[in-house]
Structure formats: C-alpha cells, structure tokens
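Reader question, answered in our methods column.
A reader sent in the components of a multi-part assembly and asked whether the whole thing could be modeled at once rather than chain by chain. We filled in our standard form and ran it. Here is what they sent:
COMPLEX SIZE: two components
ENTRIES:
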Amino acid sequence: MREILQRALSLDSSEGYADIRYEETTITSVRYSGKELVDIGSSRVVGGQARALIGGGWGAMSFNEIERAAESLERAARSARVVARHVKEPDKMAPVETVVDTVRVNPSEDPRLVDLEEKRQLIWEYNQILLGSPHIQSTDVSYLEIASRKYFANNEGTFIDQEQLLVFARIGAVARRGDLTQRRFIALGGTDDLALLRGREEEVEAVAREAGALLDAEPVEAGNYTVILDPSSAGVFVHEAFGHLSESDNLADNPRLKETMKLGRRFGGPHLNIVDDPSFSGHPGSYVYDDEGVRGRKTYLVREGILTGRLHSRQTAGKLGEEVTGNCRAKDFTHPPIVRMSNIFIEPGDASLEEMMASIDDGLLLIGAAGGQTSGEMFTFGVQLGYRIKKGKSEAMVRDIVLSGNLFTTLANISMVGEELIMNRAGGCGKKGQIIYASGSGSPYIKIDSLTIGGRK
Amino acid sequence: MRALLDKALEHAESAEVFVSEDAVTPVEFVNGSLKAVTEKDVYGLALRLVAQGRLGMAASTAWERGGLVERALQSARYGQPCRFSFPDRSPLPEVKTYDEKTSSLQVEDLIARGEDILRRIRALDPDINCTLGIERRVRKISVANSAGQEASYSRTNYAVGMWSLSPQGFIEVPFWREEGAEFSVTDEDIEEFVRKHRLSQRRTSVPTGRYPVIFTAGAAWALLLRFFAGISGESVAKGTSPLLGKVDERIVDERITLVDDPLRPLGLRSLVVDDEGVPAQRTVLIDRGHLKGFLFDLRTATETGAEPTGNGFRRNLFSEGVEVEPTPQPSNFVLEPGDVSLRDMIKDIKRGIIVESVMGGHTGNLVAGEFSLHIGTGFLVEKGEVTGKVMDAMVAGNVYEVFNRIEALGDTLEPTLAIFYGFGYAPAIYFKDLPVAGRD
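And here is the structure of the entire assembly that came back:
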C-alpha cells in the first residue's frame, strides 16, 4: 500500500503539498426497534481521498478504487491550481516531522473476532429487559462496531498504517400512557473492547424504570434556573458550548473571531479547566494519529479559567502560526478532514455533589444528555430528566427540558466543579455534513448559577 | 447489477440491488476569499436478500460481488423472518429530476457565480464579511430486484449557502437555498440579506412571556419534522405515534394541508422511485386540517397492513448512503402555502418575533410533537416594523396544539433544510401567541 500511495503522490513538494488517505472500514450493526430486529449485518466502506494544496489553494477528490488514486490526485491538483488563481489569503501547512508508523489495536475482547449471532444475542437480552418492564411501549436498542484500517501518505514522506476500532451499544426505551410518551436512553461501551458491553443489566433496568417514572413527572416551567449538570449532560455542554468554538477552522480566516477568542482571555473561574485529549485512551474519541498523519496529544483549552489553547489541523496551525494538535478528522473517504474535538472534558475540581446540592435553595438537578447544537456564541441542548432542588434537597422529577445560553456568560457562571470525571460512552457529533461517532466528552458534576430553560408554561 | 442479483439468487429466494453514484462539486469561499474545491466521484451498492425466509443485508463502496453476497447471507442466517416482498415491475411516474445545464456546470462556472454574489454584497456594504458555498450534485440511483422491478433516475441539485459574520466573528445572518436545478441569487435576495445584517447590529432581548411569532421557511423544518415524526410509518409500527386511530379526524387548523410530493418538477428531493424500488407517489398527509395518511417503507407498511408509499430511503437526519438501512423518510415534505404576504404578517404585529433559524430542532420529544427551540436568527417586530435582532430566547409548544391556533400562512413556498439535508418546502407560518423564554 505504501508503494501504491507514494507512487500516486506525483506532486513534487516544491510545487505544493499533497496527501492521500485510503480506508477499509467494516461497520457492523444490529438494531432492535421494539421487538423487531430491523438491522443486522455489516457494511464495507472502502475508498480514499486525495488532497492538494498549491499556491495557497485547496483541491480534493474522493474515489472508490485504489487504482484511481493517481488520477484523483491529479484532479485535486488541477482544482487547487484553479483556486490558487483566485485566492486572496493563501493557506500553508504547519511543519510537522515525517512519520512512518504502524498502529494496531489490542482490546481484551476483540469484537472483530466475535460471531454476529453472539452480538445479536447480547443486545437482544437488553432489549428483552426493556420490553418486559412496565409502561414500555417501544425500544430502540442497537449495537454498532466500526473497525477501520486507514492508510495515510503525503508527499513529505509520511506513511501511516493505522487500525481504529470503536464498539458501543445504545439502549433506549419509550414509555407511554395515553398520548404522553417519554424517552430515556444511555450508551454502553465506547472503546475498542467488547467486554465493556457485557453484564450491564442493572443500567438497562434503570433506563426502563426512569422512562416509566417520567410519565408521572411534570413538564418543567420555562425560566432561568440554578442547575447542577450530571457528568453526561455537562460533557455535552462542554462539547457544544465551548468545544466547537475551540476548533480553529472557523477562526483561522476570521479576524473578528480571532479577536473574540484571543488566548489569555478569561472564560471562567480558577476552578475551570477544559482539556481535549485523543491520547486519553479508552474513550470514544481516542486515537493515535489524525487523518493528516499528526499524532494526537493533550491540549489544555482552558487552564484555571484562562483560554490557553485551541484545536488545529495543519492548515489552521499554519495560518495562525501555532503548534499542531492532531485534531483533523473526516467521517469517511467521501469527506475532507476538518478540525474536530477528540475527547473533550472538564477536569475534576474539589466540590462534592452533596455540597453542590446544599448550596441550592431553588434549582434543578439535570441528568442525561439528549443532543445539542451550537451557533458559536449560543448553544442549546436537551436533557432527559431532572429533579427540582428545594432547600438543598432533591424533590419531584421534571421532564421536557431544553437548555440554552450564551457561551461566555454560562462558562463564567460555572461556580462549582465536582470531584470525579466521568466520560460519556458514546459520541456522535455532526459538523459540516459529517457525523462522527468517535467523539468523546465528559465532566464531573458541575453547578451553573443561571441557565435558560425553554418550556410551554 | 444484474450479475450481482443473479449471484445472490444462487443462494436466495429473492434479492434486491441498490446502487448510488454521486458526483459532487462544491466551491467554498471563506471570509470573501476562495478557499477550496472538494469534489467527489463515488459510488456505493447495497444488497438485500431473503434466504430461507429471512432477510439479509450488506452494503459496500467496492464492487466485491462474492463478499457482498456472503455477508448478506450471514446477515440472513441471524436475521428475522422477512414479511415484506420486493415490489413487482410497475410503471414509474414521469418526473423532471435532472437538469442538463446544471449537470454541465464546471468548477470555473461555480467560482464565477460565487464571486458575483460576493461582489454584489460588497457593492451594497463593503464591510460585510461573508462565507459562501455553492454546491452542484448529480446523483444517480438504480434499483433492481428479483420480482422484476428495474428503475433508475438521476437528480441534479444546486445549493447556495452563505452567512455574514457578526462583529464578534459569529454567524450573523444565514442564507440557504437548494433546488433541483441552478437558480440565481437575485439582487432582491442580496438586498434582503444586507438589510437583515444591518438590522442585526441592533441587538435586543425580550422578557419571558407570550408573543406573536412568525416562523419563516428557514425555521419551519423544525415544526414540520415533528409532524413527520408522528406521520412516519416507523412510529405507526412502533405504536408511539399520537396520530394512531385519528385518520379522517380534524387534528389541526383547516388551513393546514401537508403533502409528501416527490413529483414536484426539479424539486430539491424529487424522484422517480424510492430506494426500495417503489414508484414515487404524491401522498396527502393532512388535508385541510384532517389527517389523511402516513408515510411507509416496505417494512413498516407490511407490519401495519398498509400499502408502501414509496418513502423507503437510505438516509436519516445525519447520514445518507448505502450503509444506512431504508426507513420511512420524506421526499419533498410540503406545507401548502396560504394567501398572506410576510410583509402583511409583520405589519399586523405590535410586538413579536420573526424566527428565521433555530437550533435544537432535532432534540426533544419529536414524536409527541413537542418543541423547545433556541432562536438562532430571530428579529424583533415592533409596531409593524422589524427593529432588531433577538438574542437569548427560546420558543416552545406542541405542534398539535399550536397548529390549531395559527393566525396565517404565507403566500410563498420556500425550500427548508433539516440539519444536513433538504427536507421540503414551507411558507411563513404566523402564530398569534407562543410562549417564549427570554432574558428576565
């Protein structure tokens, strides 16, 4: 493969930069919708993308067969030369050391070696637990295994042959009474190890129980609240509210945003530390090399409340004159790699959950992320359930909770950070038409002094 | 395709082959400067078969006949009994989905169109910073099965997406339009875009309360998506749809007519046949307020005893491709227009909000019709005039309630985009009062 790719990389490095990625990915999935098995089997995603950066302009071309690598690179180079004629602010790549490396995964229980029927049986049992629980009308239980072998070569001499493996299950239940339906879901696994999906009956039972309990919960009233976010929802909060803004592709060609996100700006109190780390192994966003052949590393985005770093591709690092971070990834060969978070999390502080609860006279404890979105300065995300907090005590359950807020004020309003970091077990992040499952997030419990919650009352 | 089908039928009772071929050319301008041309010319294929009565499936982006059949057979070994059958050969509708001129546009043509748009914006306001993308796609879909169906069509798409930047460098005003053929961004479109950008420089917030609210097409998808969630054969089959047993009942205001219309000439998701070989058809879902139908793929139609409506597609809100199993999805999901201009709606409002884009449209209890949306781009209306941009606000409700209290529907249909993909068409929707969580 190394020879094939390097032969196809015909662009001389004196004219510009070029790379080719080629991947062979097997996606194995099993999904139950209620009692119906609606999906079982595997897909093969095989193909590549050639990129060229010439005269500061980019061209890229995606293709299926490896035999088309050379002509695709020529096509990308032709586009890049056209772009170069119009470009006003030429791009350049940050320098990195040439790498030749092979990466293999080595999980304690390798899902690639386990029979499909055994995987079906595993999630069938979880589905049966849900279906047999009171009030459960329907379920959505799925197994997803993404096993890749990725090759990367560029015309600087780098060649990487890398395995990546991610396996997780989603466990969701819908409870119904009359016209009222309520949903609760969790994820299991989120690493290269199938063993983490086994023996999780208690958590699955809790999903059914909480979905049923939500039928008796009251809809939350709209307004501003003091809240405690659990690690799951706080992880999605830091991903949506802050993480996307730390991705430098929006900023590299945007002087105003660069000013807004000036390193050294204060974002929160001294107890706030935010990190992105692909080398933090055992989480959905863990990897060794990104899709530009750059080794992933730990990046402090916020340290003691101060903005100290951001995430880069070689292009954004080159443009901004900063160090590469290894955060440039693509969904698959049909998309160009763009700047993405890996595992983003808030580092643990020193507050206990009890202390946080005791400090709240009237507020909400919010549990379980349910997806979110950001426009840059504003973010929104759903939460699966909550409890009213009155005078430091958790009271009635509330439902239908969607939060939103301004990034800057909300980060500044984080007043307490808990003691234990817990990472989410599944990611799923959409950006520029590309959804990536290998995306991790996490946090300890955090207390935020004011957040807007939407609602019908 | 034929060879793959034959190979599958050596081991299976029935089989279906699906092939998609995509040629995509996007040009991308960032902050007024051309940045990249990121093309693709790729294909994918999917095989489904029934062996010993069980459904098996496999997909690939490589022509690997043997491997595909083997994996589909393995899937069938563990799969459950297949209750649906692949559709017979049947006549296909005549639908205009392909435009030769759009298909033949070159990279240089797209660059010229992008530069022209940016030049006209700069002529009106040299200080606006814009990011702009123009994308031309040609997609060919082919489906063939052992029951005799064999169909193929090509669709062109042309999309223009852009946004201006706020003084802090965030998205200020978004603009998005997509059709099945090239269109021009008119001088009026550009004047409107620049006017909104300038209005946005006056930022304001509203206190929590009830307000008149207009959803324009850019935000309407989030409401229509909730109707779709209840109308989808998936939620009918699961028994979670709140619309079960309500056919012919009046469920919303009598001015509401909702249709799934794949036959619209050069529509953004017009088609001849769905991804399971079922001929495209126009399906009335809500007729003057009365529930009329649901959208089914083969599986959910069989499970519920309904006829398939030609809505089995290999995509969801976030992914589209051969690796996605068919589920019920809309083609062009169309809310029929009314007769009131957006201008007259605005004139009618003493103090209210125009919502042009939302965040969080995909989260919450969709099937139940619940929405709680962060207003991404929204404008304050005071005494019939647009006076500024609304920040920090959310609007909430349940579509089955609020569509009983609509004030008016706009007279112009515009395309609407859900997350990544074109979703359908909608007019402006004017509600007399909706709860808004603002800044207190």
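What stands out: Chain A touches chain B through 93 residues (CB under 8 Å). DSSP finds nine helices and 25 strands in chain A.
Send us your own complexes using the same form.
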